[in-house]
Amino acid sequence: MLRIVDTRTGHLVEIPSVSRHLLSICVHLAAGDAGIGLGDLRALLVGDVLARTAELHGLQSRTFLTTPDLPHERARALDRAMSALGVHPPATVSVHHPNGTFCAAADVHVHAYGTAAQDAVGGVRIDVGQVSPASGERGVPDRARLPSPGLLEAVAPEGSDPLAVRMLMLGHAYRTPVVVTGTALEEARWTLADWRQLVSGWAQEPSRPIPADVVRHAHDALADDLGVPAVLDALLTVATRADVPAGAKFETFAFLDRVLGLDLAREVGHQHRAAT
Question: Which helix H or strand E contains 168, and what residues bound it?
């Protein structure tokens, strides 16, 4: 059972609301003249993680996307940003419609910060928290025009890992504001690199079952209002647990990465190929 807080009521609501095995998600990006910003990318990440969580719980999911009326060049830049951040492509993309009829019947509506409310639309409403740069840090804009310069390139320069942006966002509850700083991005990049090296080493050991308490905790956290930060904390704990064999640590990281989408097994096999 998945439950999410409906912004309209502040109460946890079970999704989907009827007994079926398909969860319909609609992500709404903020309409305006300023282009697509980090707040919009964060909403896309929340929708992506919700879909991945549903699938982990045995549900099929389908995601729709509504955007401003973007020029072709900016629409392509948005596609590139979604791909770089590991966001699964939506089933359908549509331009904002005044009466909000597109995907009105979705089970969950994920709204980027600054998106106008549509009271007539049913389903659960999720308002994603604001994303803003630290004061004086011009290299991490809250909202920048796509694709010149590309928004993702502004926070993940060439040669750096754009999934660090994903990890930074996922480290905060989806409702809370996020302040993006160069230090925070560097810490996310370092953690990703460290975890991938650990996973690569653990992969060389015999496979072992994932600890039952870890699976239970992760399922419960995700099912209760998409508690992704608790899952990241669980991985930090598992990595240092002396009672968990290396093979079990590998299986744990690989399993939970199905939701996190951080490509944690990226370095698996690299050492072996280099040695041969």
Answer: helix 163-170
Max distance between CA atoms of the chain, in angstroms, equals 62
Say what the pLDDT of residue 94 is: 80
Measure Cα distances from 243 to 66, 131, 211, 235, 248 in Å: 47, 39, 10, 14, 10
- pLDDT number for residue 140: 52
Taking a C-beta distance cutoff of 8 angstroms, is the pair 18, 49 a contact? no
Contact 31, 96 (CB under 8 A): yes
Q: What would the pLDDT profile of 84-106 be if each residue is shown by its tens digit?
A: 999 999 988 887 655 555 677 89
- DSSP, collapsed to helix, strand or coil, labels residue 121 as coil
Q: Is 20 helix (H, G, I), strand (E, B) or coil?
A: coil
> CA nearest 165: which of 146, 182, 144?
182
Return the closest-CA partner of residue 51 out of 94, 17, 16. Answer: 16
3-state helix, strand, coil in the chain (%, to 5): 40, 15, 45
Q: State yes or no: pLDDT of 34 exceeds 80.
A: no
CB 247 within 8 A of CB 201: no
Of the candidates 172, 168, 198, 203, which has an alpha carbon nearest to the alpha carbon of residue 186? 168
**Residue with token string 């925070």:** 184
Which residue type is seen at 174? Y
Other CB atoms within 10 Å distance of the CB of residue 175: 14
More confident residue, 245 or 276: 245
Q: Which of 270-274's residues contact partners 24+ apart within 8 Å by CB, and which partners? A: 270/200, 271/200, 271/201, 271/204, 272/204
Structure tokens at 203: 């992969």
- Token pair of 259 as six digits: 């939701």
pLDDT at 240 over 80: yes
Find out whether 193 and 148 touch, Cβ atoms under 8 Å: no
